[in-house]
Amino acid sequence: MLQKPLVPILRIARLLLTTSIKQQARLMSSTRKDNFFLRQLFDTENSTYTYLLADKSSREAVLIDPVLEFAERDAKLITELGLKLLFAMNTHMHADHVTGTGKLKSLLPGTKSVIGKNSGAQADVHLVEGDLVKFGDFELLAAATPGHTNGCLTYICHKQEMAFTGDAVLIRGCGRTDFQEGSAETLYHSVHSKIFTLPDNYTLYPAHDYRGQTATSVGEEKKFNPRLTKPLKEFVHIMNTLNLPYPQKIDMAIPANKVCGLY
Ligand SMILES: N[C@@H](CCC(=O)N[C@@H](CSS)C(=O)NCC(=O)O)C(=O)O
Ligand SMILES: [Fe+2]
């Protein structure tokens, strides 16, 4: 009889970062698989996108940036589709809404919450640059893209030629840098070195859109992003003069997100 392994199968691995982003893309995207499932979900209150990704054959799934008020909707969909949620992941510690990762852990037992180590927030798994989150035949590579917050991660799926940028790159925009640990210079360098170096055809999925758009691509943003196409000095000036009102829920959301959305 087959013995049960003594240690659980490793689902978080680490990529050796001696290869460039372009080499990683070539190595890891060699076989695009039809077994991939992606569903973009929308939060009508905060304009947040949540992404459900799964391997249709093994049924293993991950959820990126779930929102507390929509956790039951997401859990129902995952159950209806017969998926097993391995990880409820955050791209960063959100300031405008409370994460649904804590609630999803109780709605779907066995789910692990995930966030970047540099966020300073609690979670079951803390990721750093180069970590790989595996689900079935697929994996997400964590790329550190600080600037909007210190702990911002972009999750890259080379096999499917796509990346989940959180608030680092928004469609024809980018995350603001005027609170949390925001730094326009840091954001500019993150985007230019970690996201704009991906192949032009890669689809980018942001954490928010306020104008009804759903996705973009590396090539489009390199050409048309009204902020990030500018030289660094001009970008910093744009970011320092945005004069946006603070998110309405910021005083409640940040403390709640420090503890994974569980008060
Ligand atoms: N009105 C919203 C907050 C809008 C906002 O500040 N969005 C953030 C992302 S959530 S931290 C942002 O970075 N926006 C950049 C931009 O250019 O709009 C609310 O009250 O919640
Ligand atoms: Fe944010």
Helix content: 10-25%
Structural domain tally = 1
Number of helices: 7
Strand content: 25-35%
Can you tell me the CATH topology? Metallo-beta-lactamase, Chain A
Describe the fold and architecture.
- The chain is α/β, with parallel strands linked by helices and 263 residues long.
- It has a seven-stranded mixed β-sheet with strand order 1-8-9-10-11-14-15. The protein has a six-stranded mixed β-sheet with strand order 2-3-4-5-6-7. Strands 12-13 form a two-stranded antiparallel ribbon.
- The protein is built from seven helices and 15 strands.
- Helix 2 (71-80) crosses helix 3.
- Mean pLDDT is 93; it is low at 1-9.
- Ligand L3IBWBLD binds next to loops.
What tags apply to this protein structure?
263 residues; alpha/beta; Metallo-beta-lactamase, Chain A; 7-stranded mixed sheet; 7 helices; 27% strand; disordered N terminus; binds ligand L3IBWBLD
Topology:
Elements lengths: L11 E3 L6 H8 L7 E8 L4 E8 L4 E5 L6 H10 L3 E6 L11 H7 L4 E5 L8 E3 L3 E5 L2 E7 L8 E5 L4 E5 L2 E2 L2 E2 L9 H12 L7 E4 L9 E2 H7 L7 H9 L9 H9 L5
Parallel strand pairs: 4-5, 5-6, 6-7, 11-14
Antiparallel strand pairs: 1-8, 2-3, 3-4, 8-9, 9-10, 10-11, 12-13, 14-15
Helix pairs in contact: 2-3
Bound molecules: ligand L3IBWBLD and fe (ii) ion.
Condensed summary:
Helices cover 24% and strands 27% of the residues. The protein is α/β, with parallel strands linked by helices and 263 residues long.
